Amino acid sequence: MIIMIAAVAENNALGKNNDLVWHLPNDFKRFKSLTTNHHIIMGRKTFESFPKPLPNRTHIVITRQTDYNPEGCIVVDSIEKAIALCPEEEDSYIIGGGEIYNLALPFTDIIEITKVHHTFDADTFFPKISKSEWQLVESEENFKDEKHLYDYTYETYIRK
């Protein structure tokens, strides 16, 4: 299965200046628990936003830069090549950024969204999820607290 995973604001914002514009520790824990021991597919800018490769995951980085070769990563030049490297019998995760989400949407089976209940000034956005193509099958509300400045909801969508 190809699973897209993202934290998205009410206005579909993902981030600004190659960084998130909110901090939700429970969402980071959920991301880690879902993606650990799986292939993760991302664009070069998303990969470069990490201080180091994420442990216990196979990193596939998509870039047009022919000389790009970060240690511990598989580098390809298309979403099709990235997906072809993922084991069919396992879940693989598309983790961003905005351009990669748009390219990967036609290949995606499941979308795992953390909907952050706020709007943000951003320069990167998640694609719109068409209600005619996607069905919401699970939703779990979470409320702001001392570690989370915003209410947020975990949502799972499957392709119709």
Description:
- InterPro entries: DHFR (IPR012259), DHFR-like_dom_sf (IPR024072), DHFR_dom (IPR001796).
- This protein has 160 residues and is of the alpha/beta class.
- It has a single domain (2-159), classed as Dihydrofolate Reductase, subunit A, CATH 3.40.430.10.
- Helices cover 18% and strands 35% of the residues.
- It contains four helices and ten strands, in the order E-E-H-E-H-E-E-H-E-H-E-E-E-E.
- The chain has helices spanning 25-35, 44-48, 79-84, 98-104, and strands at 2-9, 13-15, 39-43, 58-62, 73-76, 92-96, 110-116, 124-125, 134-142, 152-159.
- The strands form two sheets. It has an eight-stranded mixed beta sheet with strand order 5-4-3-6-1-7-10-9, with helices on both faces. The protein has a two-stranded antiparallel sheet with strand order 2-8.
- Helix 2 (44-48) links the parallel strand 3 and strand 4 (58-62).
- The longest helix has 11 residues, at 25-35.
Summarize the structure.
With 160 residues, the protein is of the alpha/beta class.
Radius of gyration: 15 Å
Remind me, CATH topology? Dihydrofolate Reductase, subunit A
Uncertain spans: none
CATH architectural label: 3-Layer(aba) Sandwich
CATH class designation: Alpha Beta
Question: How confident overall, as mean pLDDT?
Answer: 96
Can you count the helices?
A: 4
List how many beta strands DSSP finds: 10
Tell me what portion of residues adopts beta-strand conformation.
Answer: 35-45%
Biggest sheet, open or closed, and with what strands and sense? Answer: 8 strands, mixed
Order of helices and strands: EEHEHEEHEHEEEE
Indicate how many domains the architecture comprises: 1
Q: Roughly what percent helix?
A: 10-25%
Which structural class best describes the helix and strand composition? alpha/beta
Strand order of the largest sheet: 5-4-3-6-1-7-10-9
**Shape by Cα distribution:** globular
